[in-house]
Amino acid sequence: MKEKILFTFNENTLTSEVATKTGSVIGDIETTYFEDGELLVKPLTEVKNRECVIIESLSGEAYETLFKVLLLVSALHGCDAKTITLVIPYLGYSRQGTNKVGEPNSSRVIASILNSAPIDEILTCDIHNSDALKYYKVPITNLYLSEAFCPTIEEYLEGENIYLKDVIVVSPDKGGKERATSFKEEIGASKVIALDKSRDHSDNIEKIELNSDVSGKTCIIVDDIVSTGKTLCAATDLLLEKGASKVIALISHPVISKSCTERIKKSQLSAIFIGNTIEKKLDPIYQVIDISELISEAI
Ligand code: R5P
User: Fold this and answer.
1) Parallel, antiparallel or unpaired: strands 196-201 and 204-209
2) Which of 32, 135, 208, 226 is deepest in the core (most CB within 10 A)?
C-alpha cells in the first residue's frame, strides 16, 4: 500500500478533498480525556513505514490543537511512521511575531515547539509574516494561495465586465504588500498598492491612509486574515471615498470573530472571497474558495 495516511482531529472538507485528490486514506484517531483533563491521543490506523500527513489549522483554541498535534506526532513516530508531514493551513499566533518589549514573540514560541517534535516537513499557507519562517529548523514551505484564488476571481471579474487594466490590488497595510504583490502578478492586474494602517491596540484601527490614485478603479483588497472585519470595512470606506468604483476582498483565512459578519454585512464591500483553511460554518456572504488542489500538489 503506497497511499498516504491523512490525519485530522475534526472532520473537515479540506482534508476530505485532499484525500480524494491524492488517493489517500484518512486515518482514525482516538482522543481520550481523563477526568483530570489530561489527554491521550492514539492513532488507530496502522502507520508503520507509511507516509503520514497531519492537516490541522492553529486557530481559535490553538493551544489545545497544538498540543493534540504534538501528541499525535509523538505517537506516529513511536509507531514507526515512515515520514510525518504537518500541514497547518492557517498558522495562528503569527501576528505577534516581533520583539516588542514586554510582549511575547509567539511566532518564535510556536516554531521552537514544533522544532522539538519529530516532524519531517511543515507546510503552511499565506503566513502572516514570512519573517517567522526563519525560526524553523524543520523544513517549512509557505504556499501562496494566489494560484488557487485566481480562477474564481477571474470568473467574477468577467461576470461583472471588469477588465484587469481597471483593477488595483490593495494591501490594507505595508506588511501585507508581498502577499498582495504575489496575487497581482498571478492575476495580471495593473497595479498593487499598500494602505498605511496602524492600530492603537490589537483589535482597533488608529489610522488608515491612502497615498495613491484609485479613482474609477475596482479595488481588490488582499489580506491574510479577517478577524473583526474592522480593517476591511475601514479600507473599503477609504477606497470608495477616494473614488474607487467598487471594492471586493480576497482573504486567505476565515478567522472571523464574533462581531465580524454583522460588520461586513453593513459595509460597502461588493463581494468577499475566502479560503477554506479553517473549517467553519460560514454565512453565505462569504464565497469560499477551495484550496485542496494546491495542498494536494504540495504533499
Ligand atoms: C493585520 O496585520 C492583518 O493582515 C489583518 O489585516 C488583520 O489581522 C485583520 O484583522 P481585523 O479583521 O480584526 O481588522
Assistant:
1) antiparallel
2) 226
